[in-house]
Write the structure tokens for this entry.
Amino acid sequence: MGERPMSEAGERRQKLDSLLESGQSPYRNRFPGPEPVAPLLERFDGFESGDSSDEEHRIAGRILIKRGHGKATFLVLKDATARIQLYGNVDILGEETYEEFRRLDIGDVVGVAGPVFRTRRGELSIEVKSFTLLAKALHPLPEKWHGLTDVEIRYRQRYLDLIVNDEVNRAFYIRGKVLSSLRRFMDARGFLEVETPILQTVPGGATARSFDTHHNALDIGLYMRIALELHLKRLLVGGFDKVYEVGRIFRNEGISTKHNPEFTMMESQQAYADYNDVMEMIEQLVAHIAKEVLGTLKLTWKGEEIDLTPPWRRATLRDLIREHSGVDFVEYPEREALLAKVQELGVEVDPAAGWGKLVDELLSNFVEPKLIQPTFIVDYPLELSPLARPKDEDPALVERFEGFIGGMEISNCFSELTDPLDQRRRFEEQAAQREAGDEEAGYVDDDFLTALEYGMPPSGGSGLGIDRLCMILTDSPSIRDVILFPLLRPEK
């Protein structure tokens, strides 16, 4: 029997060993001064077949395609900006150097130098005069990656996804530009960017389960933050008028196309403003980002056109639930009656759910999926909003709105509650619900209450989900498509 053929990974390892034995380093420490490929392609776009630049150009990147035999080898190199063809010829490189060039593998990282020219087939290329292997790839890139259906592998090995999938690269390029554009907008409006603690002794500012940890030196329990809000409000007490933070939030909740336990929010606080001011800011902010990053306010989301042009539609929670479910929750002030009505509609709910949770279920099941165009839902029941200011004309409601695009909530904002006595009462109600078994209910935050007792100016607060906004702007069906390294169950 003959010997079994060597695997591709084995061949690559053999090439690595040969390089080491010959005294060459397969992992260099630098390649100074490479030019980005995209501007190079743009600069020489007018070249005709046979045209060549006078000077040599240095570029570096990863080999994606390899073809050719004999005296000429063609490679396709990709850097962070674009792809370009490399042309290596034995007459230019010499036999020994050309053999080294020909032995390069798909996936290897190389630096090359040579003039730009256009081939007879019309391809802008680099005529390689010299090259340096910068990093030897010991594994082949996935074959037919674009046809791969196992999305978990894409998320788990995101680096491979980024190497070979230009659309994935584009999505994360857009995400980076979204954050830059957001900061420019907020800074121009006079907001100061700040940073607040991720580890907290009392998690607050939202209704959610937290991740718990322990600090050994102080021997105290700590929580990963579930919101940014309460520390930003402390800063208003301290005298800042406009503050914002772009930060990671951690919630110990399920995973879905809209939820990841670690996600990014922009939260802001503006003194002497209310939720109407914040509504105007959010719609202007999203429109600004879309126009600056994508150049348009009209997007395609799951085959439907979305127009982000302000002003957005405004409608009350009561009207929308009544319109889409037929239920006027005001007519069901008792929990038991509303529970029976919700169950009659076929909605599966926890029989122990409170009245506010039942209203939220009606919103989630009947209204949210219909809100494709940008919409602000305003005026929520007090029970759903433990941190929002009551409406003067109807204290059973609060000055709160949620912004929806593409059937998803992207923002949650309100006029802030500044009354420390009312806030304590609401915290205590939340704590009682937690004692009764609701793990998402909040705690009494005495330090925050003390801050409020010193006097906090009236304020409009905002929360904008960066991940979901990026989903809309990139037409991505899952939140995992816009988070570089989403949380996954470890491989066995």
